[in-house]
Amino acid sequence: MLPPTETVRRPRSLGLSAARRSVMAQDDPVVSAQWLHEHLGMPDVKKVQRYTSSIPCVTGFGCFLVHAGREQGSMERISDGIVDRTTDLPHMLPSEEAFAAAISELDIKNQDKVIVYDGKGFFSAPRVWWMFRVFGHKKVWVLDGGLPQWQASGFNVEKASPDDDAVLKSIAANRAVKRVYNGEQTNTISFQTEFQPNLFWALEKVAQNVTAKTYQQIDARAKGRFDGVAPEPREGVRSGHIPGSVCVPFPEMFDGAPPSLLLPADELRRKFQHAGISLDRPIVVTCGSGVTACILALGLYRIGKRDVPVYDGSWTEWEGQSDSDYPKVTAPGTA
């Protein structure tokens, strides 16, 4: 069950239920809080994870809400639990087997529609959206504005208890990932993956592009970190950027007043063009550790750039390599 494909643009006003509204569509990466509220009672809408504050759960089949964020007192977020356990880099993409095992524990099937939302509005939800797409699941959307927009619209939230079925499934998903990386037996895998290499870049692919300059490199971090004059949040990591990159801080993807929504397509195009990005050329996105780069990928998807790869290791991985083999642009005196 999909709504019409057109997007309803909204003026800035207090009429949240009607004015700040977009619809769920195959050609758009987000769904509005209003649309979700109207469809929560439908038989094909179901939520599989509940956290400290969350959208009410309705039993059904076919459309799953996955809470990507982590709030005080809540469980691990999906982008921190379903990760590559063989690296010290934070929340890297897991193997196909690990992802399939975890998503199977969440009882998500290949035919299901998935809606991801975030307690912070927009932060880790686009990362989960990207993860599903990397593994071949195209029926995935992000809730526009996340939980803050849901609450600002006047819709109810509910509290979770540790013995809720959805919370137990989340724990089981994280355990399944550990079992895969430990070489242990997992439960039956019902979710099938199909890796999309065009959406994922590793270190050497970026290194090749620094020389070839085939793809435009866009960095989602704040300008100070990009320029090397503001510190990185991770100890021991210098600030700066990969040579040839352009800085488009991820908040540029949102409208101004909180809770923030993804900008309309025409405004997103202007943001990238103003930064000197040609939308007719290929693009790769990066950030500090592969999370906020996915916000840029979300914005680019809205304007028709649907094959944008994310450099998973991003600056944290690149900065940790030798300067002679992997050059960096840093502020004077920081080398």
Topology at a glance:
Elements: H1 16-19, E1 30-31, H2 33-39, E2 45-47, E3 63-67, H3 78-81, H4 96-105, E4 113-117, H5 125-134, E5 140-143, H6 146-152, H7 165-181, E6 200-201, H8 203-212, E7 216-219, H9 223-227, E8 245-247, H10 265-274, E9 283-286, H11 293-302, E10 310-311, H12 314-319
Parallel strand pairs: 1-5, 2-3, 3-4, 4-5, 6-10, 7-8, 7-9
Helix pairs in contact: 4-7, 5-11
Descriptors for this entry?
335 residues; alpha/beta; five-stranded parallel sheet; 12 helices; 10 strands; disordered N terminus
In short:
The protein has 335 residues and is α/β, with parallel strands linked by helices. It is 30% helix and 10% strand.
Overall mean confidence score, pLDDT: 83
- Distance separating the two termini: 55 Å
Radius of gyration: 20 Å
Please give the number of β-strands: 10
**Low-pLDDT stretches:** 1-23, 46-53, 57-63, 69-77
Tally the helices: what do you get?
12
Tell me the major beta sheet. 5 strands, parallel
* Strands ordered across the widest β-sheet: 1-5-4-3-2
Strand content: 5-15%
Question: What does this molecule look like?
Answer:
- With 335 residues, the protein is of the alpha/beta class.
- The strands form 3 sheets. It has a 5-stranded parallel sheet with strand order 1-5-4-3-2. The chain has a 3-stranded parallel sheet with strand order 8-7-9, with helices on one face.
- α4 runs antiparallel to α7 and α5 crosses α11.
